[in-house]
Design goal:
heterodimer, A: 166 residues, alpha+beta, 4-stranded mixed β-sheet, 7 helices, 4 strands, B: 527 residues, 5-stranded mixed β-sheet, globular
Amino acid sequence: MPLDFVKPTPPTDDKRWKVVQATMRRNGNRHDALIETLHTVQESFGFLDDDSLRYVAAALRVPLSRAYGVATFYHFFRMKPAGKHTCVVCTGTACYIKGANQILDSIKQAYGVKPGETTPDGQISVLTARCLGACGLAAAVVYDGDVAGKQDTGGTLERLQKWAEQ
Amino acid sequence: MTPEELLQLATEEREKQAAFKHNIRVCVAAGCLSTGSDKVKIALQKEVEARGMKGVCQVKGVGCLGLCSVGPLITVDDNYCRNVAPEDAADILDRLGDAPADRLHIPSSTPFFARQQKIVLENSGVIDPEKLEDYVAVDGYQGLLNALTEMTPNEVLTEVTKSGLRGRGGGGYPTGLKWSTVAKADGGGQKYVICNADEGDPGAFMDRSVLESDPHRVLEGMAIAGYAVGADRGFIYVRAEYPLAIQRLRVAIRQAERAGLLGNEIAGTTFNFSVAVRLGAGAFVCGEETALMASIEGKRGQPRPRPPYPAESGLYGKPTLINNVETFANVAPIIRKGSTWFSAIGTEKSKGTKVFALAGDIQNTGLVEVPMGLTLRDVVFDIGGGVPNGSFKAVQTGGPSGGCIPAAHLDMPVDYESLGKLGSIMGSGGMIVMADTACMVDVAKYFMEFCMTESCGKCIPCRVGTAQMYGLLTRITQGLATPSDLQLLEELSDMVRNTSLCGLGLEGHTCPAHKCEMVVDTEKEVA
């Protein structure tokens, strides 16, 4: 440990940083707490940005390049804020067989957004998941955290329409 | 907690449970929850209370009951009920002690239930996954305490070896042999046990169900492993996509720690074992053991060459035992009931049972556990109920590293050797059935897209090769391909397969059985 290590201060005085600090402390502020800490940042703030990456890297004493590398390597981490609502379409094999791609195509046609994008009004983010493990209920779509099974294009567009009209 | 205290707790809890004349169990695993089973549970509880039957009829949330396609599922005493809505509560209680209404009832003689044999899932759908007492009442933690107080680590190793248990994550490596290697390794005092719960194969949800339905069983298996190999720390690496499994695991760990079944000086012995949960972050390659360990260390999940194997130099460079969820779930019953009991189940080389996740174009989607050696036909048609619309074309096993097995091989027994001979693998246990409407080139393209996106980028053949192959497959599906494209595809897939570092994920397209089917389809499209 370099002798002149000064504990960095969080980017803002937002209280949510306390939660992040607690995660790092629980893991002994060690390098290997990086992924756990990034999970907490994303849970608290919804996404990871430059400031948060800089802060976490400094606090855990890992090179910024490694923090950025980890954040962009794993699909679960988002580098952009999500929309007000999120719609995660499962693209696992069972859901694929049951038409997940058609659902994604129809969303793209109706709202012009591809997986990973958010509508310009910031209402709806569309994401995909590799497999939610809800294969018995294929095709599965998660609307704001609620898993819905046996979805089709009609049902999905109806749900999204409600969000869009809000 | 000493063995005597454990027995006493088990007896007390059993007496408490026996006091109820009726038991209603509501599945609260992820599948049924998404169809509203929590509301069904509340409605039933309210109805029981309103009728003043609280001391007579117990309503409890349990793990996966298996038949996910007709959820919410509940059991009323010994009867299964499907598609239960909150409004059905009164009707169900009216008929208590009698057969449920026909529209809800699924007879337990249905092949889906009758032909299963449960070891790993024996408590799924029976116990409340968030109650330690419930697990203890069904002999939970007895295997661990038996091992700690009556067996030496060597005896545990012998028992596991003799049982013939093999890794359930896909490879089928003999578990006893793996444990013995770690036990022999000199870690300078530190060794680790890792449970691989990064169930990345799309179409597989066995591990999720086990963790959601019976988390203590996995912890017990890990602790027994820790005792046998001389490790005092365990990690469970779970996908972040499984929030419910993570939550229940954390609850279970806290409960076990409080009861002194994990932590320091377990059961008054000198054995210490702690377990921590580590979250994955959505990278398929982290199911590969060296990538998984890199991820636990907080790095990018990229595999490294083996040897050295994790058994010699694993997590933080220390000897590490790494097994899959289902493997650990088999351990406690083996110690409790003995290796002879276990090795009597299954085939000569594949012992015990296997849990499969049935999905795709199949009548009964859900989770089943069958003895090894049952034929694919039995699993797909008898238990699974066959293909609802259209006829059977192929079943995909083993995730992206596996293959598609066409109808001609339906009478193959399901065990490690037979599936290997067909060019597929047992894999972790996902079975995706495809009807004749499915185009195999499309399926190959789907898996290639999967491999392309999930490639970690370390080896060039995989990173670049999969992208090229995806391009070729796309041309085929668009009808633009020429016969030379097919040859190029074959050459590329051979090259990628033989020059990539990790075996995980990048071979699906090269499997003979898969390819035969594919070539037929391809020729149709090229012509």
